[in-house]
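Predict the holo structure. Ligand: NAP.
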Amino acid sequence: MDIGGLFGLEGKNVVVTGAGSGMGRAASRLLAELGANVYATVRRHPLDFPVKREIPSELGTREGLDALVAELPPVIDALFVCHGISNSVGMTNGLEVQLTNFLSFRYLTEALLPRMSEGSSVTFISSNGGWEWRERAAACMELIETAGWDEALAWYASHPELTNDGYVFAKQCQNVYVYAKVHDPAFVSRHVRINAIAPGLTKTGLTDDFNRSLTGDAAFGQSVLEDMYLSTWNGRWATPEEMGYPMVVLGSRLCSYVSGQVLYIDWGSAAEWELETILSA
Ligand SMILES: NC(=O)c1ccc[n+]([C@@H]2O[C@H](COP(=O)([O-])OP(=O)(O)OC[C@H]3O[C@@H](n4cnc5c(N)ncnc54)[C@H](OP(=O)(O)O)[C@@H]3O)[C@@H](O)[C@H]2O)c1
């Protein structure tokens, strides 16, 4: 059996954002090895392996996203949206986090949807930090249902608490978007699947930013995060490949009947939190 062929990605046009480092880089590398035509966006980190096209991109602005959309091919078989930033220390960048970590995901997906082929896939990188999405589902839906970039900006302006919540709200919006769009005619009319992975703590280009985002002290931040997320289960940090590889599987033909899923890749942390929440209700 041709194991690589099972992915169904050879000669297919795939787009990966945030491909220069971390999980996006791991996914791009595997996609290139599987023979896909990889259109990879990079910003500060150039790629160190060959792809079909490496496209320098700024994805936190509408202008940057429009420029990227103009560079991409007319038919796309898989879209992997991997870019992201963390909250800054003291959180002055709530809106920047929302635009980078959610609104750009929606914008890019909807701009490229008309080019997605029959049976193609959209896969986001969310986070297990977004697991309490149920508590914010109504607010997420309001934002998801705004028409276009400017209406979304107005929504953020009228919801400062959620905007300033930064990372967690953006990831909750990603999760709700996956659930909301799975049967949307714009997706199912051509059987475009939509899923997300929701990673736990992973050593990547973002690790120092995450560690610093609590107080500015990276060593202290790391110990707090490890206490919160790893100590209860004798856990370890994941590698970028432990996220990027399952993401490729999810976006490939191997998962051709999987849609509307947020796949937590966190060694069961979110599952444990969910059980505790249900039992304590
Ligand atoms: N690491 C974790 O523990 C963890 C856990 C859960 C979820 N996640 C999520 O995983 C995803 C991938 O992040 P990662 O951990 O692999 O970190 P990473 O190595 O920093 O990768 C993120 C990539 O996104 C790019 N990027 C960020 N903002 C951008 C912008 N405005 N325009 C263009 N490119 C931009 C970065 O480009 P440059 O650095 O080159 O500028 C970088 O290559 C993110 O969505 C993150 O929220 C991470």
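The chain has one domain: 3-280. The domain at 3-280 is CATH 3.40.50.720 (Rossmann fold).
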